[in-house]
């Protein structure tokens, strides 16, 4: 009998997916149509447990032409979106918290962050969402989505501004240290901060930011992770050499509660540590471009990433604190323009600073990708997907890079910005919205166990307390410094 339908190739398979578009009701009309097996009637010894309501399950034919990223590429992309400028502030937080408490908190916050990522993966798949904002809208409504997208924009734009500031400070110098170009070539037009940032932005960052898909950045992400590892290894080896030679003073193990300033510092370092693990806004793009995506595979990506980040963060924080002790600066790169007291000190200083600048150059486009996607969904709602509009994608890239460059020329310091974004947007994205979404959808549709509910409530309360305490501490610190 003639048919207008063509056979599905043997090397393809059918994937049945629930249609959970936020704008569509959860319970569409059910169909009595059953799947047939091997040409048999539906009533011929067919297991009722295999019955599917076809109206609820769009068919997606997936053959051998799946070119998504593998687990390693997803790990590199997720790790790159986590390890950025925040790593430079961790030795300073260790100086405030002490060696033991600082190390414990690095591990603890990493575990909590991974739990929140797994919650987010579960409910983003349940909602069949392609972005952070879509999950929030499905669970909490449109106003909450707008708020979440504003948080992503402010957080990511702020992080990218910080990246440019660090690049400018390291290459051209600042009040606190001598720049690399100044050391190499002497003072001249080549070490002008604004000009250097502009050249780096146009020549290196813009071409990477113009890429349309995040899996196109897998190789640059792998390189950036390698450079971060180089930084950690060099810093750790230097600390070990000085420790063996007896040139390191005994570090403080616990916080100092002896003064008001010390207590005030304690209030603002926790948000900085939580900020160092926020990557939730990149979970959907990475999941969607994963080869054979599934929650189990994405959770594996998240766990590998968390272990890698905890190791890198702990090694950086401990080695930096051991090297410089009470003189540890808020940006550890500042300390690496001085004599380290060992052989090849000058060469090692260059490796640390130049290597980390290259790391930031490769991290920049990954964060920019999420920023561009969020701005597009917020400003051009209802338009065709960004992948289908190359002109709109390039226009957004140019405008965002111009604004980020302008911000980097106007903001002189990164420390205050880090403290405020850590206590507001970063905490909201990583530790407030995920448990809120989980608890909300648990009441409506997707049930959580009692343990998962308790964990979600604990995470939510902790995040709110950290945010309030961090903001109050920052405001009080600003008032104290102005006097």
Average pLDDT metric: 79
Shape type: globular
Helix content: 55-70%
**How would you name the oligomeric state of the polypeptide chains in this document?**
single chain
Number of strands: 2
Spatial order of strands in the largest sheet: 1-2
Can you write the helix and strand succession as a string?
A: EEHHHHHHHHHHHHHHH
How many helices? The count is 15
Major sheet, described briefly? 2 strands, antiparallel
Distance between the terminal alpha carbons, to the nearest Å? 89 Å
Strand content: under 5%
Residue stretches low in confidence (pLDDT < 50, at least 5 long) are 1-5, 15-66
Topology readout:
Blueprint: E1 13-16, E2 59-62, H1 71-82, H2 90-97, H3 99-127, H4 132-140, H5 142-172, H6 180-185, H7 193-209, H8 218-244, H9 260-275, H10 283-288, H11 295-324, H12 345-379, H13 390-410, H14 415-444, H15 450-482
Antiparallel strand pairs: 1-2
Explain this structure:
The protein has 483 residues and is mainly alpha-helical. It has helices at 71-82, 90-97, 99-127, 132-140, 142-172, 180-185, 193-209, 218-244, 260-275, 283-288, 295-324, 345-379, 390-410, 415-444, 450-482, and strands spanning 13-16, 59-62. Strands 1-2 form a two-stranded antiparallel sheet. Helix 2 (90-97) crosses helix 3 and helix 7 (193-209) packs across helix 12 (345-379). Residues 1-5 and 15-66 have low confidence and may be disordered.
Could you list some keywords that capture this structure?
483 residues, disordered N terminus, mainly alpha, 15 helices, globular, 64% helix, two-stranded antiparallel sheet, 2 strands
């Amino acid at each position: 009998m003639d048919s207008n339908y063509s056979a599905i190739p043997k090397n393809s398979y059918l994937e049945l997916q629930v249609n959970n578009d936020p704008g569509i009701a959860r319970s569409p009309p059910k169909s009595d149509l059953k799947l047939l097996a091997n040409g048999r009637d539906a009533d011929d010894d067919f297991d009722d447990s295999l019955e599917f309501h076809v109206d609820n399950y769009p068919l997606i034919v997936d053959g051998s032409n799946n070119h998504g990223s593998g687990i390693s590429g997803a790990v590199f992309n997720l790790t790159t979106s986590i390890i950025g400028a925040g790593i430079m502030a961790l030795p300073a937080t260790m100086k405030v918290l002490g060696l033991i408490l600082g190390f414990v908190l690095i591990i603890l916050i990493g575990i909590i962050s991974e739990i929140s990522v797994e919650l987010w993966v579960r409910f983003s798949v349940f909602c069949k969402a392609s972005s952070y904002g879509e999950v929030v809208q499905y669970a909490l409504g449109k106003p909450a989505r707008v708020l979440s997208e504003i948080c992503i924009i402010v957080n990511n734009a702020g992080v990218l501004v910080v990246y440019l500031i660090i690049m400018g400070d390291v290459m051209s110098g600042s009040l606190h240290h001598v720049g690399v170009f100044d050391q190499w070539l002497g003072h001249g037009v080549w070490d002008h901060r604004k000009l250097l940032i502009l050249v780096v932005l146009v020549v290196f960052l813009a071409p990477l930011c113009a890429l349309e898909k995040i899996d196109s950045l897998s190789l640059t992400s792998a390189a950036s992770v390698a450079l971060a590892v180089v930084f950690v290894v060099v810093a750790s080896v230097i600390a070990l050499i000085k420790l063996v030679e007896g040139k390191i003073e005994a570090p403080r193990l616990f916080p100092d509660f002896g003064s008001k300033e010390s207590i005030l510092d304690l209030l603002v370092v926790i948000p900085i540590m939580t900020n160092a693990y926020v990557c939730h806004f990149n979970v959907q793009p990475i999941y969607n471009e994963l080869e054979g995506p599934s929650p189990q595979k994405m959770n594996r990506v998240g766990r590998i990433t968390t272990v890698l980040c905890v190791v890198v963060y702990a090694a950086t924080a401990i080695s930096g604190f051991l090297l410089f002790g009470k003189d540890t600066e808020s940006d550890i790169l500042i300390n690496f323009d001085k004599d380290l007291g060992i052989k090849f000190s000058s060469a090692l200083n260059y490796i640390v600073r130049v290597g980390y600048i290259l790391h930031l150059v490769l991290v920049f486009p990954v964060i920019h990708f999420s920023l561009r996607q969020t701005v597009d969904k917020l400003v051009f709602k209802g338009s065709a997907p960004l992948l289908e509009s190359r002109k709109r994608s390039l226009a957004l890239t140019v405008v965002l890079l111009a604004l980020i460059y302008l911000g980097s020329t106007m903001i002189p310091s990164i420390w205050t910005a880090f403290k405020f974004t850590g206590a507001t947007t970063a905490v909201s994205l990583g530790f407030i919205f995920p448990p809120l979404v989980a608890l909300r959808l648990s009441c409506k549709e997707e049930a959580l166990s009692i343990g998962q509910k308790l964990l979600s409530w604990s995470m939510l309360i902790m995040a709110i307390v950290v945010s309030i305490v961090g903001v109050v501490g920052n405001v009080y610190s600003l008032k104290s410094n102005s006097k």
